[in-house]
Amino acid sequence: MDKNRGDILIIHGPNLNLLGKREPHIYGSLTLVEINERLINHARRLKLELDIMQTNHEGVIIDAIQQAESQFACIIINAGAFTHYSLAIRDALAAVSIPAIEVHLSNIHKRDEFRHKSVIAPVVAGQICGFGADSYILALDAAARLVRQKEQA
């Protein structure tokens, strides 16, 4: 990786700070801290660096995406409920030249009808959902491939 850039920015959106106690039958029993520890350990094995953030605020997510272009090679984002209606986050992802991967712990397509539509899906490299905390690990593997492909190009 370019030493002047971090490798991957991980953005956890609204309510993900409540993981472990928020509807564990849907989202699992792992806390966000435990998921982040798994991600950091997996990133070490992949020889990648992560910057991880969580916010409940749409504007903070947009600012992070806009700033990521000069700092990171890829974004992994779980936009939470913003996935389904935030055109501002969608537009921010479309405006930057680095790839992003959309992640969800649950399978959004098997849940409430309003969760089936992702407004950010059309502007990301791919979407991974339904594998619990492993959704993030799968996204990290995919991000590593995207980063390495870009380095070789």
From TrEMBL:
<comment type="pathway">
    <text>Metabolic intermediate biosynthesis; chorismate biosynthesis; chorismate from D-erythrose 4-phosphate and phosphoenolpyruvate: step 3/7.</text>
</comment>
<dbReference type="InterPro" id="IPR018509">
    <property type="entry name" value="DHquinase_II_CS"/>
</dbReference>
<dbReference type="GO" id="GO:0008652">
    <property type="term" value="P:amino acid biosynthetic process"/>
</dbReference>
<dbReference type="GO" id="GO:0003855">
    <property type="term" value="F:3-dehydroquinate dehydratase activity"/>
</dbReference>
<feature type="binding site">
    <location>
        <position position="91"/>
    </location>
    <ligand>
        <name>substrate</name>
    </ligand>
</feature>
<keyword id="KW-0057">Aromatic amino acid biosynthesis</keyword>
<keyword id="KW-0456">Lyase</keyword>
<dbReference type="Pfam" id="PF01220">
    <property type="entry name" value="DHquinase_II"/>
</dbReference>
<comment type="function">
    <text>Catalyzes a trans-dehydration via an enolate intermediate.</text>
</comment>
<keyword id="KW-0028">Amino-acid biosynthesis</keyword>
<feature type="binding site">
    <location>
        <position position="84"/>
    </location>
    <ligand>
        <name>substrate</name>
    </ligand>
</feature>
<feature type="binding site">
    <location>
        <begin position="105"/>
        <end position="106"/>
    </location>
    <ligand>
        <name>substrate</name>
    </ligand>
</feature>
<feature type="active site" description="Proton acceptor">
    <location>
        <position position="27"/>
    </location>
</feature>
<feature type="binding site">
    <location>
        <position position="115"/>
    </location>
    <ligand>
        <name>substrate</name>
    </ligand>
</feature>
<feature type="site" description="Transition state stabilizer">
    <location>
        <position position="22"/>
    </location>
</feature>
<feature type="binding site">
    <location>
        <position position="78"/>
    </location>
    <ligand>
        <name>substrate</name>
    </ligand>
</feature>
<protein>
    <recommendedName>
        <fullName>3-dehydroquinate dehydratase</fullName>
        <ecNumber>4.2.1.10</ecNumber>
    </recommendedName>
</protein>
<dbReference type="InterPro" id="IPR001874">
    <property type="entry name" value="DHquinase_II"/>
</dbReference>
<comment type="similarity">
    <text>Belongs to the type-II 3-dehydroquinase family.</text>
</comment>
<dbReference type="GO" id="GO:0009423">
    <property type="term" value="P:chorismate biosynthetic process"/>
</dbReference>
<dbReference type="GO" id="GO:0009073">
    <property type="term" value="P:aromatic amino acid family biosynthetic process"/>
</dbReference>
<dbReference type="GO" id="GO:0019631">
    <property type="term" value="P:quinate catabolic process"/>
</dbReference>
<feature type="active site" description="Proton donor">
    <location>
        <position position="104"/>
    </location>
</feature>
<comment type="subunit">
    <text>Homododecamer.</text>
</comment>
<dbReference type="InterPro" id="IPR036441">
    <property type="entry name" value="DHquinase_II_sf"/>
</dbReference>
